[in-house]
Amino acid sequence: MIAPAAIGDRAAGSPAEPAGRRGTGGARESFRELYDRTSPRLAAYLRRVTGSPDWTEDLLQDTYVRFLNAEIPDMDERQTVSYLYRIATNLVYDGWRSMRREREWEEMAVTEDTPPEPVGLRRDVEEALAKLSPRERALVWLAYVEGYAHRDIGRVLEVKETSVRVLLFRARRKLAKVLDEAGLTPEVLG
Amino acid sequence: MSESIRECPREREALAAVVAGRWPPDLERHVATCAECREVVAVSTWLRGVARETVVGSLPQADRVWWRAQVERRLEQRRELVERAARPIRWFERGAAAAIAMTVAGILWWHGAPTAGAALVLLSDPATLAGLTAALLAVAGWTARDAIRRP
Fold it and tell me: Could you tell me if A18 and B73 are in contact, meaning their C-beta atoms sit under 8 angstroms apart?
């Protein structure tokens, strides 16, 4: 329930110590529980924001390694998950910055082998999401899949809350238009 | 070009209904007539469907991630130790350089007048001046070549 705190509670170290330094067996077990609870959601986020399955796996590992070695205070479950998303998003940004051009990355993401997904969905999804910028993808995912409030999205993406409102509105409008044009609008009611 | 932001106060409610899959009749009627809420519902329904269908091949095992974190932490600790161990050596080098410079300055100050006089006598001789210039150029060339060769 309380990830880093739970790791800290069972250990000899102080709460401000890196999560990975606290204790041994108990801390490891706490981490395993946290990882099993959060990693599938975080992986889905990374997969859809980056568009690359291979990169997703690397980023997922790096996110948790950075989390384990970070000096963080005790946090509740929601704060922990939010912190993980923040680390993951920063790693994605770092990755993009280190690539010479974003287009190169987009091409790589499209041409890479992807794990099997339901026929008819994958290409539509990839094409629709590819029309959004990476930040727009992160915005709509955090807002409409994770259900984050503007303030929380701002913390994860390191953007002002007021800016999130504007950026999210534009991203949502853009995605709605893309879905409409592609005939992907779901039957939402009745 | 810029589009004004339009929001509906019931957007969060509509999103919550998508998550819960339950639609109170008044909210359902509202969404049917509110373009903003309809958009929120359409986008969130689609995205949540994508999230459900997103298959991420093989996730790394928690233990593997745990041990990688331990290894990286130990490597970082070792780097810090090396850095800390090298610190006195660097301070010693700086101190030694400063001591040499101060000694040379002291000697020059102590023998100031005779040294300056001797230097003037030497530099007034054209052959000595030419030799000294050649030596200085050779040292400068040698240093520049060394700097260029260094990766």
Answer: yes
Which one-letter amino acid corresponds to residue B115? T
Answer whether A25 touches B (CB < 8 Å): no
Candidates A136, A187, A169; CA nearest to B31 is A187
The pTM of the full predicted model, rounded to 2 decimals, is 0.67
Q: Please give the residue of chain A at the shortest CA–CA distance from B62.
A: A32
pLDDT tens digits for range B103-149: 877 777 777 666 666 666 767 777 777 887 888 888 777 766 666 65
pLDDT digits 0-9 by tens, A20-51: 444 566 888 989 999 999 999 999 999 989 88
* CB spacing of A189 vs B32 below 8 angstroms: yes
> Does B2 fall in a domain?
no
**Residue from the list A21, A144, A189 with its beta carbon closest to the beta carbon of B44:** A144
* Residue from B30, B43, B48 whose CB has the most chain A CBs within 10 Å, to mutate: B43
Number of domains in chain B: 3
Q: Is residue B35 part of a domain?
A: yes
Boundary of a domain, candidates B21, B36, B53: B53
Q: CA B16 from chain center: how many Å?
A: 41
Residue A187 φ/ψ, nearest 5 degrees: -80, 100
Q: Is A18 helix (H, G, I), strand (E, B) or coil?
A: strand
Q: Do A57 and B58 touch (CB under 8 A)?
A: yes
